[in-house]
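Notebook, p. 212. Picked up where the previous page left off. The plan for this session was modest: take the two constructs that came back from the sequencing core last week, fold each one, and keep the raw output in the notebook itself so nobody has to go hunting through shared drives later. Recording the first one now, exactly as returned: residue sequence, then the structure token string.
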Amino acid sequence: MITPRPAADWQPLQVADMAQVDRIAGLIHAGLPERPAVLAEKRDLWPAACLKLVREGQIVGYGLAHPWALRDVPPLDAFLTALPPSPTCLYVHDVAILPRARGQQAAARYVAILTAQARALKVAHLACVSVYGTVGLWSGLGFEADDDPGLREKLSSYGDGARYMTAGISEPV
């Protein structure tokens, strides 16, 4: 009899977890490196949306998000320095899940957490940049590609094939 693996849970990302986040980022995003201090700044600016994915006591992924302006793409590996005073979206900077923890709807659970946060912030959208051909994944989570040519320059730091995507937040029923 095969024993199913326990599902991973999203938990608050602590300062002490950032070395593990950096390690996972290096494995998942080897072609799009970011300095550890840049990732840490996102956690420091908006810890509520910066979570770690934990399974059996091990960090197997992370998600970083923060309030931002819709259709404004923060350059990769750049400090934000501050969040906008009147955000119009919750920007998903990164979701990285190790291969051994995939296939359990962890990304969908993270997006659901962010959706609730966006409602609380009274912003109407989630936004992200899809990299590595993950448009299908994000589309399955309710995001749509925004192919506005004006976004191309802003997407250049994210590599070839990067696509800006948004998801509208509907009011809870």
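Okay, moving on. Second construct, recorded in the same format:
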Amino acid sequence: MALDARGVSSNGSAPRCEHLDALVPVAPHSSTCRECRAAGEHWAGLVMCLTCGWVACSDDSPRRHALAHYEETDHPVVRALQPGSTWRWCYVHRRAV
């Protein structure tokens, strides 16, 4: 990916997220939010931690277990669990990456 002198990608105006550099492919640990399932609760969406593969409910869900996972582990980037989705979120930068 080409960056200009300001460190901005030619594909957009947001600075590049260096948290993507250290990621290696991981597989999801489950297909549900284990905490929500154990409590009998429902979730609005699921995301997977790109550091360890932990699957949790998204910030659109009442319990926000993915955010709690970030706060406990400092694992910065998640992706949507839906097949074919390319959406990723960096909790450090608080933006899609």
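Notes on construct two before I forget. The chain has a mean pLDDT of 89.
Flagging for discussion at group meeting.
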